[in-house]
TrEMBL record:
PROSITE patterns per UniProt: PG_MUTASE
PANTHER family reported in the protein's UniProt record: PHOSPHOGLYCERATE MUTASE
Top-level class of the enzyme under EC nomenclature: isomerase
Single annotated GO MF: phosphoglycerate mutase activity
One Pfam family this sequence matches: His_Phos_1
EC number(s) reported in the record: 5.4.2.11
HAMAP family documented for this protein: PGAM_GpmA
Family: Belongs to the phosphoglycerate mutase family. BPG-dependent PGAM subfamily.
Name this protein carries in UniProt: Phosphoglycerate mutase
Site residues by UniProt (Transition state stabilizer): 194
Length: 260
């Protein structure tokens, strides 16, 4: 490779595409999900397919996929990539991209939790940057204690509850060691994950405050594109491939917990 070509390649924006999984069975039921493994609904499958259409129409061609260990993200990625004719790309999966662990809230109805805790504490548990919900007990049926997905990981490392800050703490080492390296190798990277793990990446990349990230809602199934420089700082604001649908989807996410 010539020096001039290498310099041209290095100067091109690094492309990072974030996709939140489509509607899951527990999204539909308005339940706190966290690390509980649930599948996509038919609507979620349609959202995943739409994500693939948007990718294909945009001309963006992911070279590598990162997902969490949870089925709803994996299903979304597979459907989107099949639609975009990119099923052949390499795949890496990690628990560090999992959704925030909601502790003892996992499995609880959001409307019931709102009534139980009141609006202030409910918002704190749901959106506080550094206040996690009460931890889940190992014998709770919604605990991940003994889950074979995580059998190779030190049990002391796996969370029993998390705040967004703790999500970022467990995500950033993986970002630096894996995802960032692929971006610096000029690969177009697709990350299909969850509302909070993607919000964690969003905060890290944009540098917004803890207060500002609490108001950021990432809609399901709509690719969000970051164009980054050689130091992996954004060269312009991130953008959705369908801005109008993204605005409506973000509003729907913000309203969760208000359903009766």
């Amino acid at each position: 490779m010539s020096n001039s070509f290498s310099k041209t390649l290095a100067s091109q924006p690094k492309k990072l595409i974030l996709v939140r999984h489509g509607q899951s069975e527990w999204n539909e039921k308005n339940l706190f999900t966290g690390w509980v493994d649930v599948k996509l609904t038919e609507k979620g499958r349609s959202e995943a397919q739409r994500a693939g259409v948007l990718l294909k129409e945009s001309g963006l061609k992911p070279d590598i996929l990162y997902t969490s260990k949870l089925s709803r993200a994996i299903q979304t990625a597979n459907i989107a990539l099949e639609t975009a004719d990119r099923l052949f790309i390499d795949v890496k999966r990690t628990w560090r991209l999992n959704e925030r662990h909601y502790g003892d809230l996992q499995g609880k109805d959001k409307s019931e939790a709102l009534n139980q805790f009141g609006p202030e504490l409910f918002k704190t548990y749901r959106r506080s940057y550094d206040t996690p919900p009460p931890p889940i007990a190992d014998d709770n049926k919604f605990s991940q204690f003994g889950d074979e997905r995580y059998k190779e990981i030190d049990p002391n490392v796996l969370p029993k509850t998390e705040s967004l800050k703790l999500v970022i703490d467990r995500l950033l080492p993986y970002w630096q060691d894996e995802i960032a390296r692929d971006l610096l190798d000029n690969k177009t990277v697709l990350v299909v994950a969850h509302g909070n793990s993607l919000r964690g990446l969003y905060k890290h990349l944009t540098g917004i405050t803890a207060e500002e990230i609490s108001e950021i809602n990432i809609p399901t199934g709509i690719p969000l594109v970051f164009e980054l420089d050689s130091t992996l700082n954004p060269i312009k604001p991130p953008y959705y491939l369908d801005p109008e649908a993204a605005a409506a989807g973000a509003a729907a996410v913000a309203a969760q917990g208000q359903k009766k």
